[in-house]
Design goal:
The structure holds two protein chains of two kinds. In chain A, helix 2 packs parallel to helix 8, helix 2 crosses helix 12 and helix 2 packs across helix 13. Chain A has one domain. Chain A is globular. In chain A, 75% of the residues lie in helices and 1% in strands. Chain A is an all-alpha fold. In chain B, a hairpin with a 2-residue loop joins strand 4 and strand 5. The chains are: A mainly alpha, B alpha/beta. At the A-B interface, helix 8, helix 9, helix 10, helix 11 and helix 16 of A face helix 4, helix 5, helix 6 and helix 8 of B. Bound molecules: adenosine-5'-triphosphate (ATP) and magnesium ion (MG). The site of adenosine-5'-triphosphate (ATP) has 15 residues of chain B, from strand 2 and helix 3. Magnesium ion (MG) binds next to helix 3 of chain B.
Chain lengths: 326, 343
Amino acid sequence: MDIIGALTGALHDGFGYLAVSFCLAAIGLNIQFGYAGLVNFGQAAFLSVGGYVMGAAIATSGVPTVLAILLAIAFTVALALILGIPTLRLRADYLAIVTIAAAEILRLVFGTSFRTYFHGKDGVTGFTAGFRSLNPLPNYDGFFLTYSREELWTVMVGWGLVIMISLLTWALMRSPWGRVLRGIREDEDAMRSLGKNVYGYKIQALILGGVVGCVGGFVGAFGAASVQADTFNLDFTFIALTMLILGGAARVLGPVVGAVMFWAILSFLGSVLTQLASYPVVAQFMNADQASTIRLMLVGLVLMLLMIYRPQGIFGDRREIALDAH
Amino acid sequence: MPTDNFPNDHLSSGAARKDVSAAGDTSQPRVPDPGAGENKSMHECRTALQLVPHEAGAAKPDPIVVVNGIRRTFGGLTAVDVEHLEIQRGVITALIGPNGAGKTTFFNLLTGFDQPDAGSWSFDGAPLKGKAAYKVARLGMVRTFQLTRVLSKLTVLENMRMGATGQRGERLWAAALPALWRAQERDITDRARDLLKRFKLDAKEADFAGSLSGGQRKLLEMARALMVEPKLVMLDEPMAGVNPALKQSLLGHVKSLRDQGMSVLFVEHDMDMVREISDWVVVMAQGKVIAEGPPTSIMSDERVIDAYLGARHDTDISELERVIQVEHTHDHAEQRADREVPR
Ligand SMILES: Nc1ncnc2c1ncn2[C@@H]1O[C@H](COP(=O)(O)OP(=O)(O)OP(=O)(O)O)[C@@H](O)[C@H]1O
Ligand SMILES: [Mg+2]
């Protein structure tokens, strides 16, 4: 059995573009949920707007990459405003319902409508030339650190963005602005009684988290060289939330470590189980198809154990969880 | 801490007038914003209350809050129905009344946490109808909650810092640049530590607020409200659950707020406290203001005793107090948290 192979695969996936994309989605959720207490079940919508608007702008209209990126960010801000303005004055549940609905609506629209721009099930392709032309890496055939030249470029840019955005989050969350966000998470009425414009701060948090998610959409699009609607299903947001909880909410590194670990474990279990399934003895009660299902069951088990023995996540503060108990 | 500059019965004795102005002189350096008008009127406000008739809705010489026809119903129940009420500036006003009289609802209405069915009210000359709660607080009318609302997963010191208004670092664009707000943050922290010391919470500054006891939370919430530097501070049962020794020092502290030129409106069931520190008492029952006056006369007012006891007239004030205490401890546990601020 090839354990080394499984481990390299785990590293490859744990640091790959998909992990970066999820990582940024989770960082956005951390700003919204971890710090400000906003429940956004539609983070996938922000990534899909990022990927689709940018991709379609380049592929159909030949807009320069930088401009397409700015355009996509503008659309993301608009989406956050549309979702936030009517709901953020209401109880927390309303935002959750509206975001989940918006994510599904957008997925269906991208997947079935405006085919000249979004190309239905095929998705948007042919928008990576501008991004790839910036690749400063020397030409090499085959793989370096398990990544091809194009892949490595995307991954490098992706992790650069993760580092920058994490630093920004860290700076913001130790400021009085971040303190207000955490205060809102704890008790909105108390914050109002101290003269804080709770509504305004919640909108800011929703926009900021959405834009970070949108950047994750760019990385995912460039990594896969295509944007497809079905990527952005509800599971997407829930996996990103799982990563956040796994790493530790309201911790700057929580979503980063959560995303890497989640993909690494998923990938490692995947290759080990598939290899096991090739032994005739094991194949009697687990074939290759079942292996991928069992993989998810095992991940679920790991998460359950984590929540039982370390409910605050890997980086979380146990004392905070203890406060919830009473 | 200078506390007892003022004789409690100054309202009833003519000689007290002299004491008051003498004490006023010693307290002057503590006035935070010695605007000439405020300084002049500070103690005059209190002595001027002597001339105010002891009746519900009486006009005050210098009201900071004026309420007109404010009404709030919950289904068939009229929780608040106040025809007219004025709260004098620069004095300590107590709002008392049996459980369910509508005191907390009245607080919620005044501070924008709940909207009335009818009526208008103003604070410091500014009409407040329809103003968002956070704007009301920024105008200088800051309230605490009967069921305390501390920010559990923030430290005690962070809770305090949150009270400061006009923080540059609370704006998103400035937040990532500490150079823009560090100096202000240091001043805020100094002020927070001073207040924490006065409220005997300085040893707790690094603890999560959620780990404080019930009484400590009351103290923290009161101290935090003072961080806003309000003109009028509205305390909803500030002494509930605070131990007697600390209560004495808190009473002194509330009095010193008045000496600094702040107005205080507080709800309290503890008649000792009402008698000891309030300059004026407003009595509510079944949503209405039924009596007003200085504490000495209000304690013997028939209507007040009726409101608390039903129609048993031949009870003296100590009996009244006992009944209030019992009522208070019994009914309080039953208050539902979600009732505090209806959404
Ligand atoms: N959100 C609400 N929904 C329905 N009824 C309410 C609500 N809030 C208050 N009430 C009712 O309004 C009346 C006044 O309540 P309020 O809390 O103002 O009394 P209170 O004077 O503060 O009493 P206490 O001294 O016990 O705190 C009560 O009869 C209460 O049941
Ligand atoms: Mg009450």
